[in-house]
Amino acid sequence: MADEVVLLDFWPSPFGMRIRIALAEKGIKYEYKEEDLRNKSPLLLQSNPVHKKIPVLIHNGKPICESLIVVQYIEDVWSNRNPLLPSDPYHRAQARFWADYVDKKVYDLGRKIWTSKGEEQEAAKKEFVEALKLLEEQLGDKTYFGGDNVGFVDIALVPFYTWFKAYETFGNFNIESECPKFIAWVKRCLQKESVSKSLPDPHKVYEFVVEIRKRIGIE
Amino acid sequence: MGDEVILLNLWLSPYGMRVRIALEIKGIKYENREEDLSNKSPLLLQMNPVHKKIPVLIHNGKSICESLIAVEYIDDVWNDKSPLLPSDPYQRSQAKFWANYVDTKLYEIALRFWRTEGEEKEAAREEFLECLKLLEEQLGDKPYFGGNNLGFVDIALVPLFCYFYTLNLYGNFIKEEQYPRIISWAKRCTQNDNVSKSFPEEQKFKESISQTRTNLNKE
């Protein structure tokens, strides 16, 4: 049976990147549709009426929303290759916990770094580095959070790397010097085609952030 | 095999209630341990070093944190009866989507309603009722969100209703004629043994809430 898989996405979205990586890991053919977030398509509004956000995966006409829920769906449906989650319930719960931690911390703190100034920004930077250090501890000596291959936590986290140049420039700090193990892990991930082909050039993301800052009036 | 299951909890936490309901549905024997959040036990700090919050499920010495992750873990491990999540991948993703919606929208708005006054409170009320409309549609004619039995979304949502139901001093908040399905769902849930066992005792609850309100008003 020919599956029809469509991804409604926006190229700099780390949430969209997660799904691109998962689809690539599973070798799933799909149609990528770029959304203009200032002019959302009828398909997007119809597929995600609750949040009206990307990314949305549409599988044989049925939409699935929220990036980590989509990745789990992909895992459930295409379960016969490259498992993205451990089979053991306890380890699965741990993977979900850390992906949830990424969701709660990395995105919001990163956003604060490039949108705020002064004390607020300093506090965000400090918390951000602490979060990365905690993740480094979690990784330990493993190649990936998923062990020998990229898994749920790797997929949840690595897309934010494309925003690091923006965080570093506007936050005036260097992430690699604070968290070398983290960056070493990123580099290992980037050696995988499923990851490198799914992530945009950090330079382009940086330019995009420059544009956004102008647009929302942050000098 | 003797399973050792401990729940570190706070008697009126809606998040703790979720885990209790799941344990009750599955018929799992567990020890409910009350935490004093102003004096957290060494066990809590050791079992949830990242967030230092309740609830924490401890299964044979290993901890699982975050209420919905714990509920999913319970479903994974005790998978021989009373499934909390659908087996179909698409239905599963929808259950997770709506539980996530409850978590990220309803609880946040309810908290805002609780903590604010005047215009802000009114705005929160409006937002909450909008969310309720969506849930009313989602529930449709089913007895529970999970179908014929309590499921993931019911478990995520019902503790919040415990608060509203018990506090019908805020009675005009949800008018029965506008949300007939949700109201009858809430009644049905409170009559369910597994749910009522997990609710705090009504009088104690009312006293505690009115004390909290008095304290809040004093600040």
Report on the architecture of this protein.
The complex is a heterodimer of chains A (219) and B (219). Chain A has 219 residues and is of the alpha+beta class. Chain A folds into two domains: 5-77, 3-Layer(aba) Sandwich (Glutaredoxin); 89-215, Glutathione S-transferase Yfyf (Class Pi), Chain A, domain 2 (Up-down Bundle). Chain A is built from eleven helices and four strands; from the N terminus they run E-H-E-H-E-E-H-H-H-H-H-H-H-H-H. Chain A has a four-stranded mixed beta sheet, covered by helices on one side. In chain A, strand 1, helix 1 (14-25) and strand 2 (31-34) form a beta-alpha-beta unit. In chain A, helix 1 (14-25) packs parallel to helix 3 and helix 4 (89-115) crosses helix 7 (164-171). Chain A is globular. The mean pLDDT of chain A is 96. Chain B is α+β, with helices and mostly antiparallel strands and 219 residues long. In chain B, strands 2-1-3-4 form a four-stranded mixed beta sheet. In chain B, strand 3 and strand 4 form a beta hairpin. The longest helix of chain B has 27 residues, at 89-115. Chain B is globular, with a radius of gyration of 17 Å. Chains A and B meet through strand 4, helix 3 and helix 4 of A and strand 4, helix 3 and helix 4 of B.
Determine the most extensive contact between two protein chains.
A-B, 21 and 22 residues
H-E string of chain A: EHEHEEHHHHHHHHH
The CATH C-level name of the largest domain in chain B is Mainly Alpha
> What class, by secondary structure content of chain B?
alpha+beta
Low-confidence runs of chain A: none
Number of helices of chain A: 11
Number of strands of chain A: 4
H/E order of the elements of chain B?
EHEHEEHHHHHHH
Strand content of chain A: 5-15%
Q: From the alpha-carbon coordinates, what is the Rg of chain B to the nearest angstrom?
A: 17 Å
